[in-house]
Amino acid sequence: MDLALIRKSMVDDQLRNRGIKDRRVLEAFLKVERHKFVPEDLLDNAYADFPLPIGEKQTISQPYIVALMTEKLELKGTERVLEIGTGSGYQAAILAELVKQVYTIERFDALAKQAQATLLAMGYQNIKITVGDGTLGWPEEAPFERIIITAATPRVPQPLFEQLAEGGKMILPLGDFAGQVLTLVEKKNGQPHTQDICGCVFVPLVGKFGQ
Predict the structure, then answer these.
(1) pLDDT tens digits for range 22-43
(2) Active-site residues: which are they?
(3) HEC per residue, 45-79
(4) Distance in angstroms (rounded) separating the CA atoms of residues 113 and 173
(5) Tens-place pLDDT, residues 169-202
(6) Where are the domains of the chain?
(7) Which end of the chain is more exposed for a tag (fewer CB within 10 A), N or C?
(8) Rounded Cα gap, residues 130 and 148, in angstroms
(9) How much is the pTM?
């Protein structure tokens, strides 16, 4: 199985053909080996067009959704990014290819340890992982130019908005089991300005300021 060829097909068919245009984002998806972030028994589906279970009732998101969320952040390379929901570590790896520093918070210790082992084995040095309530953010490292939340919440968690730098962008799925909308939030003059992107389905964001 030529995984590099399958990865290129994923980028061409699932990303480019659906409108992902950012050259740096596409290059990151070509480089990061997604198959290293999925359970071994699901290796054949590592580059498939749907989410996959990774344990603890969590998933690694569909490649297109990861790319869409990443592209909407309009990353230039100098940003410090906070990710809520480390999961497998795949989104963190994509971000690490595109920004200065990634800070990522995972609720489940087992997932955090597995992600850290995978990312270190792949040579990433610009990712910091911690275990805790992601809805509280990482105040010691704030502010962040970008924040990405990979679980659904009815509203923007206030601590996370406070930790977003002025002029910064946050992307997250807003909603609950009845329906969710991928939403871009920009902080302008201390106020949130939102833009609906598309419908989506994510696991719930659990925590003090989540569901």
Answers:
(1) 999 999 999 999 999 999 999 9
(2) 61
(3) HCCCCCCEEEECCEEECCHHHHHHHHHHCCCCCCC
(4) 25
(5) 999 999 988 789 999 999 999 999 999 999 999 9
(6) 3-200
(7) N
(8) 15
(9) 0.96
